[in-house]
Structure formats: C-alpha cells, structure tokens
Design goal:
6-stranded mixed β-sheet; homodimer; 12 helices; Rossmann fold; globular; Cbl_synth_CobH/CbiC (chains A, B)
Chain lengths: 213, 213
C-alpha cells in the first residue's frame, strides 16, 4: 500500500500528483518548486494562482541562505517548521522573539502587540536578513515601517499572514514595496490564506534549492 | 485602522466575519467553536463542510483536558502551536518524539518511519491520552493499529494529516473507528487538507472551552 513507500518516495509521488493536477502554469523554473511545496504542505491548489514573487526573489533568497544570513520568524510554529538539519548546513541562525519575556513586558507597557516588538528585536540584529511572517499582520506592517522609516534592507521577506482582519491588507502593503524598493526581494500570496506552515514550507523549499545548487 | 485593534478584538471581529460568511450550518453549539477556530487559523471555509466529530467528541475531549491528560503530537509544529499558557492551567503535559534520537535510530534499524515509532513511544506512557496528528498518515495508521491490536484506548484522537499520499486514506480509516470503537472520541476532516496548524487550533479551541465551561 502507498503509505509503505519511503518518505522520499511519498514526496516524489505527491509532487507528480501536484504537477499533473496543476497542469500548465505561469511559474518560472525557480518559482515552481516553491509553489509546489506550498501546495504539498497545504493540499490547497489555490496557491497555484495566488502566490507572488518579486523579481529574482527565489535567486536572491537562495543566495542569502547560502551566505548564512539569520532567519527571524513571527511564530514559534514557523520556527519549528523550518528544517533544522538543512538550516545548519549553511549556518543560518534562527530566532523568534514573540514569547520573549522582555518583549512581553515592553508590549504591555507600550500598549502594542508582541509581534511588533518581536520583529523590531529581530531586525535589530545585523546578522538577520530573512524575515518569515506566517501569522501576524502587525509583524508584517512593522517590518514595512522598519524598511521605510528606519532604513532596514532585508535580504528576503516571506510574508504570508493568515486571517480575516489585516492579513490581506498587510500583503497588499508588501506588494506595494516592489515599486518603491525594487531591490528588496519578497515572496507572498494574495488574499486571506497563509500561515506559519506555509511560510516555513517556503523557507524549506529555498533551503533545498540552496543545497542542490 | 483595523490592525490597531487589540488582539482579543481582532479575534472577535474575525469570528463575526466567519459567522456571517458561513451562515446557517449543521454544527452543534459545542462543535461550532472548534470549526470556527479551524477556519480562523486557515482562512479556509472548506472546513465548514469537511470536519467530522464522533459523538460527544468535544465534550469528552474537554473532559480529558480538564483531567490533565497528556498530549502527544506528531510534529514539533503542532507541539509549538498548542497554547502553553492554557495547557499549563490543567497540567496537561505535551510530548513529540519525532526528533528523538532514540526514535531516529530505531526507525533506521527497523526501516519504518520515525512518525510510527514516535506515536508508539507517546502511547506507551499511561499519562498520555490526547493524540494530535497534523501531518503524518503513518502516525495515524499506527495509532489505529495500537487501538486494534494493542488495546490502546485514547481519550481523544485529533487526526488531520495533510497531503497527497495516504492522508485522506488515513482519515477514512479513522472515520471507520466510530462503528468499531464507539467509545473512542475523535475529531477529523474529510479529504487531503489538514495540517499541524489546524490540529493545534483544535486543541486550543478545546482548551478555551475547558477553561470557560
């Protein structure tokens, strides 16, 4: 029975099924492995139409991973979902400050979300360049503020907040970055869907590409 | 702007939007908060039709949580996604053995998946009663084997593997449990979708009910 296949065979078979069901698509050879892994993680074919990559985002993201640039996530789920084994091959550090006691204290005293302060803390470390947001619109809005007002220049933004209040709006704001700051690569999707699992899957797809070269 | 709402206001507003978009539905007053939180986590309304609860699953799950029964997850993402603060109120332990070095060694030597051995290890501890599977069909198949062949009687099974090979089949096998073992409560969905984020959201919904009820 199919579930007795080895994990790598299950993945290959899954990819064959996704290829067959999606059929002809507009994605470039570097973008498709990312979109396909998102569909693999979510079983949701809507991503085959809703994903968006800024120019050369995959190439630039792979390059940043190979350079060992640090990864910042907005949730511990995204943190957990990014392959430790693959990440450690390139020495990419990873951090998530949303549960940090100092961040919690500051958030209370300033009356703003922990997600905002967690992003700020992650961005303050010069070793960090890859920002992965799978949940909080406020984290993505804060990252965009850091770009516009404080000169932050991320190596890659993976922005896929999910939800009903602010998620789609935060991704529209990210999409607007392309015209303003064409040198900042980003990967996102349109609409309400997204999530920490999907954001982590994108990083994993890029890590596999970084390895395979 | 809406993102300046406090987190609890954002959630309430999201729930109002979900209620309005779903409209009349067949879920009971105890099931709906679970389905709604799954939609909130995924922004995917398909769950408003594809979820399935065995008789009294929510009531029995809430009861098991209140008794402090241990939680076993198949992925570190599901582990991370379950609210630590809420869980600790009832003293529910949590474990995930998929990255356990002993499990990895055994999996290699026996030629079976780590997910299978991780479930087996979780089930061996009598304090564990709540099994949360958001990724691996093999973990869910193994749990069902433990029920049938080794007399395991979980307090609750949350089975939502995602994917293209084995996921829907593993959930069909779980659905078949209802006729065979009507005393084992479970929550699942039909089809390929699912995921660690969704499985964790179900536990969080039950934890909130355990607290409020």
């Amino acid at each position: 029975m199919s579930v007795h296949l080895r994990p790598e065979e299950i993945e290959a078979e899954s990819f064959r099924m996704i290829d067959a069901e999606v059929g002809p698509h507009p994605w470039s050879p570097s973008e498709w492995p990312v979109v396909r892994r998102v569909i693999h993680t979510s079983a949701d074919f809507e991503y085959s139409r809703s994903m968006f990559f800024s120019a050369d985002a995959v190439f630039r993201g792979v390059e940043a991973l190979r350079k060992g640039r640090g990864i910042v996530t907005d949730t511990t789920m995204a943190y957990s979902g990014i392959s430790k084994v693959r990440r450690e091959k390139f020495g990419n550090g990873i951090s998530c400050f949303v549960a940090d006691p100092e961040v919690a204290r500051e958030a209370r005293s300033q009356g703003i979300t922990r997600s905002i302060l967690a992003m700020r803390k992650g961005a303050a470390d010069q070793d960090n360049g890859i920002f992965v947001i799978g949940n909080a619109p406020t984290a993505l809005f804060e990252l965009l503020r850091l770009v516009r007002q404080e000169g932050l220049r991320p190596d890659l933004v993976i922005g896929l907040p999910v939800g009903f209040v602010g998620a789609a709006e935060s991704k529209n704001a990210l999409l607007a970055l392309e015209a303003e700051y064409p040198q900042i690569p980003f990967i996102t999707n349109r609409g309400r869907k997204g999530g920490s699992n999907v954001a982590a899957a994108i990083v994993n797809a890029l890590l596999i590409m970084a390895e395979e070269g």
